[in-house]
Amino acid sequence: MACIFPVCYFNSKFYFSETITHFPEVKDGECVFPFHYKNGTYYDCIKSKARHKWCSLNKTYEGYWKFCSAEDFASCVFPFWYRRLIYWECTDHGDAFGKKWCSLTKNFNKDRIWKYCE
């Protein structure tokens, strides 16, 4: 076994030490959002105890995962409700730095899940 924390290579497979138990059986599986992992619910790829962001291939993490590529990251949800308005595109409204952002759910007021737009 060869390891560069937290990823190990053994018997032609990669393993996350302490976090992920084995490489997904479906190499080209799709990320499932939101997914439940440990005590959290995640709407995008995460970097929990890993060098690179990853996602679960199941709604509730069952050991099947993959590293995220550009097309795996969560998409903006349009339209979304923020304060008293409905937005159909990214907005800078409410951002202290004037950067455009979007909600990852239909109701930002309730969920407060968001990301910066690219």
Automatic annotation (TrEMBL):
<dbReference type="GO" id="GO:0008201">
    <property type="term" value="F:heparin binding"/>
</dbReference>
<keyword id="KW-0278">Fertilization</keyword>
<dbReference type="GO" id="GO:0009986">
    <property type="term" value="C:cell surface"/>
</dbReference>
<feature type="domain" description="Fibronectin type-II">
    <location>
        <begin position="71"/>
        <end position="118"/>
    </location>
</feature>
<dbReference type="GO" id="GO:0007338">
    <property type="term" value="P:single fertilization"/>
</dbReference>
<comment type="similarity">
    <text>Belongs to the seminal plasma protein family.</text>
</comment>
<dbReference type="InterPro" id="IPR000562">
    <property type="entry name" value="FN_type2_dom"/>
</dbReference>
<keyword id="KW-0964">Secreted</keyword>
<dbReference type="InterPro" id="IPR036943">
    <property type="entry name" value="FN_type2_sf"/>
</dbReference>
<keyword id="KW-1015">Disulfide bond</keyword>
<feature type="disulfide bond">
    <location>
        <begin position="90"/>
        <end position="117"/>
    </location>
</feature>
<keyword id="KW-0677">Repeat</keyword>
<feature type="disulfide bond">
    <location>
        <begin position="76"/>
        <end position="102"/>
    </location>
</feature>
<dbReference type="InterPro" id="IPR013806">
    <property type="entry name" value="Kringle-like"/>
</dbReference>
<dbReference type="Pfam" id="PF00040">
    <property type="entry name" value="fn2"/>
</dbReference>
<dbReference type="GO" id="GO:0048240">
    <property type="term" value="P:sperm capacitation"/>
</dbReference>
<dbReference type="GO" id="GO:0005576">
    <property type="term" value="C:extracellular region"/>
</dbReference>
<feature type="domain" description="Fibronectin type-II">
    <location>
        <begin position="26"/>
        <end position="70"/>
    </location>
</feature>
<dbReference type="InterPro" id="IPR051666">
    <property type="entry name" value="SP_Capacitation_Regulator"/>
</dbReference>
<protein>
    <recommendedName>
        <fullName>Fibronectin type-II domain-containing protein</fullName>
    </recommendedName>
</protein>
